[in-house]
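Write out this protein's structure.
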Amino acid sequence: MSRARTGPFLLGCCLLATLGCQNPLGGAGPAGQPRDDLRDDIVSIVQFWQQFPWIRHDERILGFFVTTYFVSAETEKGVFVREPILIWLYDTALDERGRRRRGELLQTWTFDRRQADGFRVRKRAIGGDHYGFIVRWDESLDLAGKQVEIQFGYQRGSDQRLVLGTPRRFQVR
């Protein structure tokens, strides 16, 4: 097939393949039906961190990436969520006994439904639906060599309960 015909042909195939699929960016699904893949009954947040989850550019660490599941009470699997996703980044400090504790809040992120959709992993895993977050912190933060703590949260819209993931500490290197 010539190059002049390949482009329109592939475009047509893509359009046919997507007919009847839900809108990935929110709103209504096929034929104006409301989206039913978003849930609010979250009871836990589970992350799968790599040993070195850092985003690097020119030898500078600029952020992190992590696979995250928001677990539904009903399905007991990961689901996509309705309400905003919250992330907190803290530094850590030694207390008077020499134990490392959560320190100053360095940055927060809030991803609303539309922003979070950009991090959806489209291929469902055994554990359900999940997000692949790629999060950059402010360029003014130079965290190389420091120990930080990262925690995810989700505030349910139905009852305003704040569900927190397990905080995770890392040496930024």
